[in-house]
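Table S2 (text version). Query chain:
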Amino acid sequence: MGAGLGAYVLWGVFPLYFPLLEPAGGLEIVAHRVAWSLLFIALLLTVRRGWAQVRAIVADRRALLVLAAAAGLIAINWLVYVYAVNSGHVVESSLGYFINPLVSVVLGVAVFRERLRRLQWTAVGIAVLAVVVLTVDYGRPPWIALSLATSFGLYGLMKKLVRVEAAPGLFVETAVVFVPALVVIGVLEAHGNAAFGSAGVGNAFLLVSTGLATAVPLLLFAAAANRVPLSTVGLLQYVTPLIQLSIGVFVYDEPMPPARLAGFAIVWLALAVFTVDTLRQAHSTRRAAAGPLPVGV
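Corresponding structure-token output:
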């Protein structure tokens, strides 16, 4: 459980981390995130002797195509998130990760023809109402939140379509977007618009650290997913948006007018309904797996 909590806490404090990378812009930050992540994971695979798993993925055309799609989706997610944090929309970005579980449920229905239980449908309906309320409050659809939830939900969907270990899978994903990332870095450097190398040693070190910041929580999450019950992981995922929301409101003083607070309260109600249903289902599954008690017990 400690590994899972560590992953979600690290993701939660990202709003404090990305502003430190300025004056680098969002595109440069994501490009360096890709480049240094690839290097860090390559070193990790070398230490763990995991290159055989990478070769197996590359030899599997279907797995390679799915992970390529996943790479594009997570790159979009990173771009939107960095933009949100560095443009003063931390609260709205937290909303995206609050509603992400519900988006994943809807995608399960649309793609895998999964059947939702009554409480799940209720939670989705309440979440739709919350989006309507927040659209009225913002004067526009909360596109940052919706983009983050949809891109990450689709990313999770891609990962569900192909079962691979965390480090080899992440290496293949980052390798897919590595060349575009290098092109971005090269163009920015050529035009004198890059922060790397021109904003001081400290800034360069921080940009290099994006590799660790990306890979470490993903590896912690993978370790937790293999050891912690799914219902526990489901509850832990709310740690990240709660931390993000707190940072947005109490650190960056982002506005939280009554209408916006009402919208978030409706989202939390939807998540409460969804969580109750998830815990009930997990309990029923455990009881069914245990079977009837022996006579006399």
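Notes on Table S2: Residues 33 and 81 are 13 Å apart (CA to CA). The longest helix spans residues 258-290.
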